[in-house]
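New to this. Please check this fold:
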Amino acid sequence: MDLLLIRHALPLRLEQPEGTLADPSLSEEGRRQAQQLAAWLAREPIEAVYASPLRRARETAERLAGALALEVRLEPALVEFNRQSSRYVPLEEIQAEDPERYRVLVRGALYAGVDLAAFRRRVCDALGRIACAHPGSRVAVVCHGGVVNAWAADVLGLEATLFFQPGYASISRFRIARSGERGVSSLGETAYLHPIPA
């Protein structure tokens, strides 16, 4: 089967009081990205659309599911590793505003205190269940950068769970054989978001 892992489109920056979950909706640019994603994938024979229950993933998935005349199936196990955070600031904004803070975050501060091994097991178990439910099909799963990393790292046999930064609304494709063998077809496709001028 073909498993498409899609990072959600660009959300709004949201900084809440401590103890309040930051669950931002898509920004105007994010809505545009989600629409481009839906138009691009509408030509593919996708059987099902799954999503993390966080708003930014749901809103991205809803546009894709609408283009395919499908319903979004929510999978709670696909929430991001920092789902309890009271802040959501796109890493690109942090990189532009404070390059040193960005370096500290990507070197490990971003996931300090997170059990990455447990996160990776949770993600792989959930995606394995989805794959088993759709043998021989193509399925789209709208999730988060950490989720894409955890699955891709497992497929590639990498020790590090977080090893690359998928772009917003990027598509990563995986093949899963009925025997259970897994392979990577692509990581982080975004060319469709940047069409070549005529």
